[in-house]
């Protein structure tokens, strides 16, 4: 998943904000409280090249033995030049890679022998010699794009176990609501279809596979089925969408301390984004529940999709609404809309 270009909080320095162009950070950082300009920052002029220090010139009036007479003294010795045996090299000279330092040569501070060469007698290695310098290969700074666990809005991503527990709590509440509101319709449907299924089970126990003479299903069974699905659809919609629109949390999410937030900008989802998110989460599976189990299959695929999405752990309904589920720190204030200065987020 690619993050849209824009100004975001710098994960390396949360006190500043930088511009993300979709592939990397560009431009100089600005304070996080400062209103970012529209569009990318102006292109900075390239730094002036630093002149390389000139090689030390030999002492006036002297020329090291073996130094070519055609080279000016200020240019330093040519590449690969070594002082003849028994002579001292000019000040600042260092042996070329793979060459043995001459006897009596004093290395400058911080000098290290090249691979395959022996240091001169009395040489002391500098601190940290032989240890790896800098970060290990493949290391990624925390919070930068490409890391396995990004932190949207500075918050840790919710684990799959937390999301599953929250959804089971919500299902338990919805089951109780359906039992209270849909109970009469379910009872009437059972009365309409009861004689048919009792006879089917009786013949199955007796080993009778014939379908002749089975009691007919009541004419009102289809109407009761449609009523049950419509009521379940409305209860789930009324339970989930308003709660997610106002604070990004249902009862289950509050108990598990997780919240759905937009990927970029704003602290609340709003009704439109919450409805778009729920359409794939519960709307379509509920309407397709009677189509040979297609609704259940769609719901299972959506429920398992965070396990295979990296690094944002988004379900299919999260991808549709451009949301992500994060953990809520203890003691965090409730989400309130801030349309004038929305917080940045870490890709």
From TrEMBL:
Q: Which Pfam families match?
A: RDD
Keyword Transmembrane helix among UniProt keywords: yes
Bias-annotated ranges (Pro residues) = 37-56, 65-144
Q: What is its main location?
A: membrane
Q: Which UniProt keywords apply?
A: Cell membrane, Membrane, Transmembrane, Transmembrane helix
Looking at the record, the residues that make up the RDD domain are: 158-321
Write the signal peptide boundaries: none
Name any GO cellular component annotation.
Answer: plasma membrane
Is Lipid biosynthesis among this UniProt entry's keywords?
no
Q: Where is this region: Disordered?
A: 1-150
Q: How does it sit in the membrane?
A: Multi-pass membrane protein
Spell out the subcellular localization from the entry: Cell membrane
Matching InterPro entries: Pra-immunoreactive, RDD
Regions crossing the membrane: 168-187, 222-239, 280-301
- Any idea what this protein is called? RDD family protein
- Which species is this record about? Micromonospora krabiensis
């Amino acid at each position: 998943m690619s993050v849209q270009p824009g100004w975001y909080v710098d994960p390396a320095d949360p006190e500043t904000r930088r511009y993300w162009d979709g592939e990397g950070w560009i431009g100089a950082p600005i304070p996080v409280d400062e209103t970012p300009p529209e569009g990318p920052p102006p292109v900075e002029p390239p730094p002036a090249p630093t002149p390389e220090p000139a090689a030390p010139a030999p002492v006036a009036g002297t020329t090291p033995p073996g130094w070519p007479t055609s080279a000016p003294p200020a240019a330093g010795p040519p590449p690969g030049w070594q002082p003849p045996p028994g002579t001292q090299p000019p000040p600042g000279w260092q042996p070329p890679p793979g060459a043995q330092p001459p006897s009596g040569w004093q290395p400058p501070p911080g000098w290290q022998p090249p691979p395959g060469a022996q240091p001169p007698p009395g040489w002391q290695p500098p601190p940290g010699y032989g240890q790896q310098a800098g970060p290990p290969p493949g290391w990624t700074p925390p919070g930068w794009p490409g890391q396995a666990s990004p932190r949207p809005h500075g918050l840790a991503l919710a684990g799959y176990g937390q999301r599953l527990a929250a959804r089971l709590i919500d299902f338990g509440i919805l089951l109780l609501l359906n039992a209270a509101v849909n109970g009469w319709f379910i009872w009437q449907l059972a009365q309409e279809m009861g004689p048919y299924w009792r006879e089917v089970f009786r013949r199955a126990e007796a080993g009778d596979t014939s379908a002749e003479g089975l009691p007919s299903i009541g004419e009102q069974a289809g109407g009761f089925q449609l009523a049950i699905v419509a009521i379940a659809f409305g209860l789930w919609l009324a339970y989930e969408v308003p709660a997610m629109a106002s604070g990004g949390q249902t009862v289950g999410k509050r108990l598990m301390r997780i919240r759905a937030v937009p990927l970029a900008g704003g602290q609340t989802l709003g009704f439109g984004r919450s409805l778009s998110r729920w359409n794939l989460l519960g709307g379509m599976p509920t309407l397709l529940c009677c189509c040979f189990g297609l609704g259940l299959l769609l719901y299972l695929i959506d429920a398992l999709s965070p396990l295979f999405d990296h690094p944002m752990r988004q379900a299919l309904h999260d991808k549709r609404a451009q949301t992500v589920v994060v953990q809520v720190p203890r003691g965090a204030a409730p989400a309130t809309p801030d349309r004038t200065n929305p917080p940045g987020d870490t890709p």
